[in-house]
Write a structure and sequence with these properties.
The structure holds two protein chains of two kinds. By secondary structure, chain A is α+β, with helices and mostly antiparallel strands. Chain A has helices at residues 2-5, 11-22, 27-37, 46-58, 78-101, and strands at 25-26, 62-68, 71-76. The termini of chain A are far apart. By secondary structure, chain B is α+β, with helices and mostly antiparallel strands. In chain B, α3 runs antiparallel to α4.
């Protein structure tokens, strides 16, 4: 059960999974993608990125596909896609719940 | 070629004060001391021009002596290079940029790296506890005589190192767990801790470690200090003072009377009472008073020196149990036991940290001569002078 390891994804984890929906990426590309997508609101340090990538790889959420010198590229697995979709639904539900009572 | 001038420094703060250590390394670089090498206890710096370099400590996630290539590659992409490793606890990274990107921007993911370190420390702790339990178990169940017989597993090295390592690992584990819990609660690690104010605490801890490491030397049941510092001793041959039933003249004249040395021997103990029985010196008089073959009279005296006085009663008690000896009242010794079997009388006498074991075969009454042994027991002998 993928959710067991990640009962709720942190914001950084969610955006990293989002980045992998676009294409295979290496570390710097992920950081660049997140900065562009969030207009600089969220920046990712290498420590955070490494810890999350290592955890994702350990849980079979991503795979390493290519090593080019120091550059390592990863791609998302089906398990990762499912996890991302589940999180999207959860967030959508949160938003819908919020909209029910109080006008945004 | 000019040799690089190196400077050695000790860690100024305990390992859980991460930002204090980072701050210290930054300060050192600003003084022109550049970190070159990290050994378990020392940091080696080389002198250079002052730099405004930033250091960061990351919980180690790899096995000892393994270079974390994957992590290093990623960090290098962001301008952080691996400098070394502090005791398989933290990896030290350096950025030469003036305003480098912070390594961690998310407390939840940072907590993940701390939880791995925490799990590793927990394993080490359980390994130490497991060994301690094994030793305690062995001391209770494997040996019928708790004092005289000891386990091979309980070597003095293990006995000193295990409780020390166990305590230290427990402390490390609790510190790491505290940091992990803090991060999991979404609270970032403390920033800008002042290492100068922590130096005193670190010094006190260091003194405590040293005292703890040397404490077994002075513990009543261990007392290793006494074992390695023998008191002023007289030659063992001087034991040839008047013995019961045998005058000095008789000893000198008796061709058959010999001095023997049973050699230096030691018994390992158990964790609960590790060094109870230590015959670091022992010797024996043996000699036929009359040379009539198998039935000849003889008197032998074994002299055992124990590690410390508190060991006297339990050791003597165990010896008495082994020899089926009964306690006897007397005015000269702290404890005395007597047994008789197969025409051999046996006395076990103890005072301070010396035990005498006397065996006698003959017509005299050994119990009437207790006083004669009190001089022997109060003298410290040097057994090295005994010819082999």
């Amino acid at each position: 059960m993928p959710k067991k390891a990640f009962d709720s994804l942190s914001e950084s984890m969610f955006y990293i999974l989002m980045a992998f929906q676009q294409a295979q990426m290496c570390g710097t590309e992920i950081v660049q993608f997140i900065q562009e997508r969030t207009a600089g609101r969220l920046s990712l340090g290498p420590g955070t990125l490494y810890t999350i990538l290592a955890k994702f790889e350990e849980e079979g959420i991503i795979d390493e596909t290519e090593i080019d010198g120091r550059k390592r590229t990863y791609r998302i697995t089906q398990k990762g896609i499912d996890l991302y979709q589940e999180e999207l639904q959860r967030l959508a539900q949160c938003l819908a719940d919020a909209k029910k009572g109080v006008p945004l | 070629m000019k040799k690089e001038k190196t400077v050695l420094r000790l860690l100024p703060a305990n390992l859980h004060h991460i930002s204090a250590i980072e701050h210290w390394l930054w300060d050192m670089a600003r003084e022109g001391l550049i970190l070159k090498k990290i050994s378990p206890w020392f940091f080696t710096f080389t002198r250079d021009i002052p730099r405004n370099w930033t250091y960061r400590l990351e919980p180690t996630e790899h096995d000892p002596f393994v270079i974390p290539e994957k992590q290093n590659d990623l960090y290098k992409e962001f301008g952080w290079t691996h400098v070394g490793e502090i005791r398989n606890f933290y990896d030290v990274y350096l950025s030469k940029e003036e305003h480098p990107a912070e390594l961690h921007t998310d407390t939840v993911s940072q907590a993940l790296s701390f939880s791995r370190l925490c799990a590793r420390k927990k394993k080490e702790l359980f390994a130490c506890l497991g060994l301690c339990v094994f030793i305690i178990f062995s001391s209770f169940f494997f040996f019928s005589y708790s004092v005289l017989d000891g386990s091979l597993a309980t070597s003095p090295f293990l006995l000193v190192i295990l409780p020390f390592a166990g305590g230290y690992t427990l402390w490390e584990y609790l510190c790491v767990k505290k940091l992990k819990n803090r991060l999991e609660a979404g609270i970032p690690l403390p920033k800008d801790e002042d290492y100068k104010s922590l130096k005193r605490g670190k010094r006190i801890t260091r003194v405590l470690y040293i005292l703890l490491a040397f404490s077994p030397m002075f513990m009543p049941t261990w007392d290793l200090y006494r074992i390695y510092t023998a008191p002023d001793a007289v030659a063992f041959s001087e034991i040839a003072m008047p013995l019961p039933f045998l005058s000095l003249d008789e000893i000198e004249d008796a061709q058959s009377f010999t001095l023997t040395d049973s050699g230096v021997s030691a018994k390992s103990g158990t964790l609960l009472a590790p060094r109870q029985y230590h015959m670091w010196q022992s010797g024996a008089f043996k000699g036929s008073m009359t040379n009539y073959g198998h039935n000849s009279s003889y008197l032998s005296v074994d002299y055992y020196q124990l590690a410390s006085p508190p060991l006297l009663q339990p050791t003597l008690g165990d010896l008495a149990k082994k020899r089926d000896a009964m306690p006897i009242e007397n005015d000269f010794f702290e404890a005395a036991y007597f047994s008789q079997a197969d025409n051999v009388s046996r006395l076990l006498l103890g005072k301070n940290q010396v035990i005498l074991e006397i065996r006698y075969h003959g017509e005299q009454d050994l119990l009437q001569s207790l006083e004669a042994f009190s001089t022997i027991i109060e003298t410290t002998y040097d057994f090295s002078q005994i010819p082999t």
